[in-house]
Amino acid sequence: MARRILGALSVGFGGMLVYPRAAAPWASDSSDGVAAVSAGSKVVVIGGGVAGCVTAFRLAQRGYRPIIVEAQDELSGPASATWGNACLVSTNGFTDFSSPGVFLKSVLRPALRSVLYPSGKSENVDHRTNLFVKWSELLADPFFYQFASFFLRMMILRTADACKWDGWQEDVTRECHNEIWSAASDSEGMVDACRLRRNDGVLVVNVEDASDEEVDLKAIISREPFLGRNPLEIKGAYTEDAMSGNSREFARCLAKRTIELGGDIILGARVERIVTSPVDKSVCAVALESGEIIHADAVVVCSGWQTPRLLQSANLYVPIHPMRGYSVTARVRDPKMVPNASTVIMPYSLYLARPSDSTVRATCYGEFTKMKNSAVPTEELEKRLETLVEHACPSLLEATEWERRSVWCGCRPQTPDSLPIVSRTCIPGLYVNSGHSAYGWKFSAHCAAVLADVIEGKDNTFRRLYSLERFK
After folding, report:
1. Per the structure, how many domains does the chain have?
2. Backbone angles phi, psi at 190, to 5 degrees
3. What is the value of pTM for the model shown?
């Protein structure tokens, strides 16, 4: 292990020596003196996940001509984090990894434990550990060192806006709820098609740590009968305000509305580079790997964890790094013995959800990994997730077609403080709406509305919170 880490360090530092130094990406977050992109302009939105689809929809609503350019052959496909997430729209919980206390508790300690106590048989697995780091790969990745420098900057020099987050959580959560509901209400039948549930609440149960309050097991099992079929004792429980829904269907429905509003979609088109004008250095087009050039008045990068690699073509870097997540989905045999709504089993952070009437999904884990080939799953963690479900909810094995389950792995775009980046850049006409970390579904419509205001040159209460300026 030590030899592998030393080898990775030499490769990583060597990569830093030959890696071109990127320009500072930020521009002033003030709208004063900034020329807005006029209505009717052609805006290329790179990325067909939920962030890209909602962004294009909001821009179309405001009179722009958005074009979604997606590398895959379908929107929000299996390669997208939108495909296999926990279906949970919003909770008030939030983890700022750049907070020193959170870093030690949620990042460093689990990362070390994942090395010292690798998974094995069920009885030897520490299921409380749900964040992992592939040090041998990470330390060989030049992108990671740039991300780490921003991370340390945020940790040591805490900005005023970042420290205000605690007081803004309720406001942001409310905006996330309202924007998603507003977008879904634009089309008849979309709320039902996306299984969107508002004020339904998520049930959080703890099977290891006792609660100070008495647990009403009868009420809990009445709400979720499947919990009564599992051997683990429920020692604590509460209901947290939340929304839930199928983000993939949400994204696809809004993409259809974007076309109806005058937008366009290009699938199977991988962007190779962002093209700037030799005259004023503003964005003028994107170049595809096929050689085709798509001219545009503005470009919005909604490419998730791949955003840094794409911006590298414009000699920019933004602090986003891939964090792999895992989920397993199975078809339902007995609807009465699976969760009726979103349920979280603590202290494992195991999320159970219903993407559709016929399926149930379990999601867990975060895994920091290298930028290149980061979509390739770690087989050990795939098996570990299955072991966790068998340990915490063995009844699901009988209530579903578990033998035909599908395991999914996708990357979430992690930022140092877990807040999204919704911002102009130092290149005129180039914008970013990415870095939503583990909260992509939650932030999607809210950030799209903020981004639309930024493009229009309007002031917005939250634009400074998500601006690149916070890393300055």
Report:
1. 1
2. -70, -35
3. 0.89
